[in-house]
Target: MFS family permease
Amino acid sequence: MRIFTLIWFGQLVSLIGSGLTQFALGIWVYRNTGSVTQFALISLFAILPSILLSPLVGVIVDRWNRRTCMILSDGGAGLSTLAIALLLLVGQLQVWHIYLVVAVSSIFSAFQWPAYAAATSMLVPKQHLGRASGMVQFAGATSQLLSPMLAGVLVVTIQIQGVILIDCFTFIFSLVMLLLVRFPEPKTTAEHEVKKSWQLREFTYGWTYITARPGLLGLLIFFAAINFLIGGVSVLFTPLVLAFATANVLGTVLSIGGSGMLLGGLVMSVWGGPKNRILGVFGFTLSGALCIILVGLRPSVPVFFAAAFIYFFGVSMINGCDQAIWQSKVAPAVQGRVFAVRSMLALAPLPLAYVIAGPLTDQVFEPLLAPTGLLAGSIGKIIGVGRGYGIGLLFVVIGILTMIAVAFGYLYQPLRRLHHQLPDAIADEALP
Model:
């Protein structure tokens, strides 16, 4: 796993840098606009281009060397980040600039995840895929733990443009790590050979592969539903915390969540997850739903701390289990196309969630629990009345719907029995 570890370390450093930028720009936009909707639009532009390009990206990842795809991704995203730093430096940064640059960065980032995931399947033995997924979750958790704390200090000392320049240097570091290694090429069969001509079936092959396996299709639909619900939580969490605490507390909450994710990644790295990983997905999704409900019912700093730790611990376990399932059940030669379709469809509900969450909060839920709101005399007596409590009510609704989605997922037999009914697509030994 030496090559994988080098790549992983480069991506870890890059993630920390990206986390610095995301935290700093998020606070900048929300403080300068005061609008939940405009804050949520950053997330929309960060993900929509990647979703739309996924079918093309999947074919390219299976055609090109996956290392080349990752180099292209890191290089393009680094240049996009540099553009924001330069705009800040000359005092010309506006909100629409952030939307544009984030969208361009998203186009390059679309290559990153399918290539990284597919390369991991070739570099890591099947029995260690769960641990490799845990390492990836550990990297994301480290970013979430360190980035808010570092960003809070660095914004004061070197300002936002200095923080973003640091992010640019982390992209350079990850590029160096990629340039130091070589990736093996996947073995292909006649069935999976990527043709030289650009035919429509190459773009639809990932979808055909998934729909031929009901368990994988069920898993994809399950995550699409969960992502739609969690998408609202992700964009509303910052406004919710800022309604009851300061930006410093927000950074602490995110860091505590990062420590939970870090611990989850460590556990997943050592343990590898349960043998029947789909049960791990169900169980930790359920615990996450309970955390969301608790935050909505009792929005306060101690609850934010506890819920963030437990929730993000579960996120590591969920993502680690899910990733290991796909890497073991899908043939390596077609993982670029399959993973691209998986990413596109699982993440497709997120833009809708981002678009809905802001107006739903500003125009419906917050007015409902205003001091003179329609629900102030009923639900308001349980949750509270005033700024931020409407978001809390929406959290309760989202948590309940998430629990219902878990129940439906468990009742769908091909998904519940995915581990037993769908054979693994790769051997137990390390792949060349």
Summary: Residues 184 and 265 are 26 Å apart (CA to CA). The radius of gyration is 21 Å.
